[in-house]
């Protein structure tokens, strides 16, 4: 039975996992350079050893319910998961990092049928764990450029 | 020779874990090709080998100007810059920016420059309220030219252009990003993207229309006029484009020939036309003026390529740039119209008519006779 390893993390109270093969590294909060006119789910740019990569606010991207309390989270406590697919590199901003867990491929279940919202489009599947669920993100879908509305010019 | 780029090609006698495996040049070529560059080599046995690595500009180092706006720093490629304009003083800033169909413009010499406020385009806060200086970066993009208003012009720097990821490709305003000396990231502005974002095209078209009409007006209205004093202390204006030179001529240099007065001037004969004679009907003896005057002011007017006349005036007063608006049509021949210049009524002379009146053709033949 094939096993997969997942890097797990938290967004608000939700437990997420992403295939470890797509993860390049996990870094602490970095000084951000904001990008004017960027889509709202991009918080800015960071300098990763000379390479400039965009930081995605995963909470906004997935449109996960945000408690106002979680907004007050100390920036220094954030983590960045640098995800790399071929040449495309993006850093995902998450609230907290969990363990690396190993799960069997066969146990992955399709997203819950009643799961609504944007998040459904980014999910690969769901694992039933002992106490909670692990929502497995599809890194390719997460990195895919959203079809943003064309940036309108000023009149 | 391309063999050295093949993976596994090695001339090393000893192979270690790391070196001599014949991978080096393959890696070089593969990485260069990945960014659309090329590697080229020339070799002469016993002479040496030249490698030429061509790296596309987008990944290369470019000279750039660092600017700041809305609290952020940006870089803009020198290649798209034309000049930097700095206006100082709050009052001066206010009057130097005009609005043309709701588009702010700046009059840069004779051209009209549409202004683009960088902080507005990028939706950044405006930190320049009541600023003492106005910094305009004149940017040319494609066929558009505009003035980018920034908060501060910082420095010239060579920057390494780094691409923005796929996520930000849609932002045409930025050409990339760079890491500055202090470790901070600055976004590189793309001139044509900026122009698009700010809709400069429309602005420019409007400006062009305005420019054309102003140019027309300029030709019509704004003329350099030589102000002279004519007979009876009248102020007279001569459009400066008629006047070739102003000369002070000593009376002894004037020769009289019949009714005409001539001066040898730069290998040609200049026939003098006295404004007194034209306007006051006085036949003055130019070689011998009553009031003990020893010199004459002469405005040299080139009639054609090899014929000039000299207009004798009493005084040269000034040269002014003035809108030639007709205040009243002329009442005497030789005057085009009256205009107020510097608050005083001035007769603008009709030079063509004066030349005609003085019947220069006849004098012309005279001159030729004398010259021969």
Keywords summarizing the entry:
heterodimer; A: 155 residues; mainly beta; 45% strand; globular; disordered C terminus; B: 372 residues; six-stranded mixed sheet; 8 helices; elongated
Summarize the structure.
The complex is a heterodimer of chains A (155) and B (372). Chain A has helices at 58-62, 68-71, 119-122, 139-143; strands spanning 3-11, 14-19, 23-28, 42-48, 51-57, 79-85, 88-94, 96-104, 123-128, 133-137. Chain A has 155 residues and is mainly beta.
Break the fold down into its secondary structure elements and pairings:
The complex is a heterodimer of chains A (155) and B (372).
Chain A lengths: L2 E9 L2 E6 L3 E6 L13 E7 L2 E7 H5 L5 H4 L7 E7 L2 E7 L1 E9 L14 H4 E6 L4 E5 L1 H5 L12
Parallel strand pairs in A: 2-10, 5-7
Antiparallel strand pairs in A: 1-2, 1-8, 3-6, 4-5, 6-7, 9-10
Chain B lengths: L23 H11 L3 E7 L3 E7 L6 E9 L2 E6 L3 E8 L1 H7 E4 L2 E6 L2 E7 H4 L11 E9 L2 E7 L1 E9 L13 E6 L5 E5 L1 H7 L2 H22 E8 L5 E5 L3 E8 L3 E4 L2 E6 L2 E7 H6 L14 E10 L2 E7 L1 E9 L4 E2 L5 E7 L2 E6 L1 H7 L2 H12 L1
Fold and architecture overview:
The complex is a heterodimer of chains A (155) and B (372). Chain A contains 4 helices and 10 strands. By secondary structure, chain A is mainly beta. Chain A has a single domain (3-142), classed as Beta Barrel (OB fold (Dihydrolipoamide Acetyltransferase, E2P)). In chain A, the strands form 2 sheets. In chain A, strands 8-1-2-10-9 form a 5-stranded mixed β-sheet. Chain A has a 5-stranded mixed β-sheet with strand order 3-6-7-5-4. Chain B has 372 residues and is an alpha+beta fold. Helices cover 20% and strands 45% of the residues of chain B. Chain B is built from 8 helices and 25 strands. Chain B has helices at residues 24-34, 90-96, 118-121, 191-197, 200-221, 275-280, 351-357, 360-371, and strands spanning 38-44, 48-54, 61-69, 72-77, 81-88, 97-100, 103-108, 111-117, 133-141, 144-150, 152-160, 174-179, 185-189, 222-229, 235-239, 243-250, 254-257, 260-265, 268-274, 295-304, 307-313, 315-323, 328-329, 335-341, 344-349. In chain B, the strands form 5 sheets. In chain B, strands 5-9-10-8-7-6 form a 6-stranded mixed β-sheet. A 6-stranded mixed β-sheet of chain B has the order 22-14-15-25-24-23. In chain B, strand 14 (222-229) and strand 15 form a beta hairpin. The longest helix of chain B has 22 residues, at 200-221. The model of chain B has no long low-confidence stretch (mean pLDDT 78). The interface between A and B is medium-sized, with 29 and 31 residues.
């Amino acid at each position: 039975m094939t096993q997969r390893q997942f890097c797990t993390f938290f967004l608000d109270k939700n437990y997420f996992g992403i295939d470890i093969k797509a993860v390049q590294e996990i870094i602490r909060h970095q000084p951000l350079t904001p990008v004017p006119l960027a889509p709202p789910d991009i918080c800015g740019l960071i300098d990763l050893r000379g390479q400039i990569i965009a930081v995605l606010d995963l909470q906004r991207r997935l449109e996960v319910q945000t408690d106002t309390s979680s907004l007050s989270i100390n920036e220094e406590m954030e983590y960045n998961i640098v995800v790399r697919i071929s040449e495309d590199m993006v850093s995902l901003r998450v609230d907290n990092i969990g363990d690396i867990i190993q799960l069997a491929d066969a146990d992955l279940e399709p997203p819950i049928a009643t799961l609504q919202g944007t998040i459904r489009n980014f999910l690969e599947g769901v694992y039933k764990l002992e106490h909670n669920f692990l929502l497995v993100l599809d890194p390719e879908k997460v990195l895919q450029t959203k079809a943003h509305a064309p940036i309108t010019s000023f009149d | 020779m391309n063999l050295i780029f093949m993976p596994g090609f090695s001339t090393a006698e000893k192979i270690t874990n790391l070196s001599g495996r014949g991978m080096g040049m393959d890696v070089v070529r593969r990485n260069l090709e990945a960014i659309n560059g090329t590697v080229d080599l020339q070799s002469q046995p016993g002479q040496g080998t030249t490698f030429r690595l061509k790296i596309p500009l987008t990944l290369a180092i470019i000279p750039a100007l660092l600017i700041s706006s809305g609290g952020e720093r940006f870089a803009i490629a020198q290649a798209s810059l034309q000049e930097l304009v700095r206006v100082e003083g709050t009052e001066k800033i206010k009057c130097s920016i005009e609005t043309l169909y709701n588009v702010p413009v700046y009059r840069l010499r004779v051209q009209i420059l549409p202004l683009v406020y960088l902080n507005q385009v990028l939706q950044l806060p405006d930190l320049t309220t009541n600023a003492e200086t106005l910094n305009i970066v004149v940017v040319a993009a494609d066929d558009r030219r505009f003035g980018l208003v920034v908060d501060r012009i910082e420095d010239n720097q060579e920057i390494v252009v780094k691409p923005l990821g796929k996520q930000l490709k849609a932002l045409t305003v930025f050409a990339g990003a760079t890491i500055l000396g202090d470790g901070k990231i600055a976004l590189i502005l793309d001139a044509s993207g900026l122009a698009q974002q700010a809709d400069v095209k429309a602005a420019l078209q409007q400006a062009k229309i305005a420019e054309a009409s102003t140019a027309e007006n300029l030709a019509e209205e704004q003329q350099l006029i030589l102000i002279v004093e004519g007979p009876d202390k009248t102020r007279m204006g001569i459009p400066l484009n008629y006047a070739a030179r102003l000369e002070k001529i000593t009376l002894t240099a004037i020769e009289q020939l019949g009714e005409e007065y001539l001066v040898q001037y730069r290998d040609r004969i200049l026939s003098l036309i006295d404004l007194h004679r034209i306007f006051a009907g006085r036949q003055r003896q130019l070689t011998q003026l009553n009031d003990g005057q020893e010199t004459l002011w002469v405005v040299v007017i080139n009639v054609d390529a090899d014929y000039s006349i000299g207009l004798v005036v009493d005084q040269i007063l000034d040269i002014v740039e003035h809108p030639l608006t007709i205040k009243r049509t002329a009442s005497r021949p030789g005057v085009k119209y009256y205009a107020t210049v510097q608050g005083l009524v001035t007769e603008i002379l009709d030079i063509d008519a004066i030349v005609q009146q003085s019947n220069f053709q006849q004098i012309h033949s005279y001159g030729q006779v004398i010259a021969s």
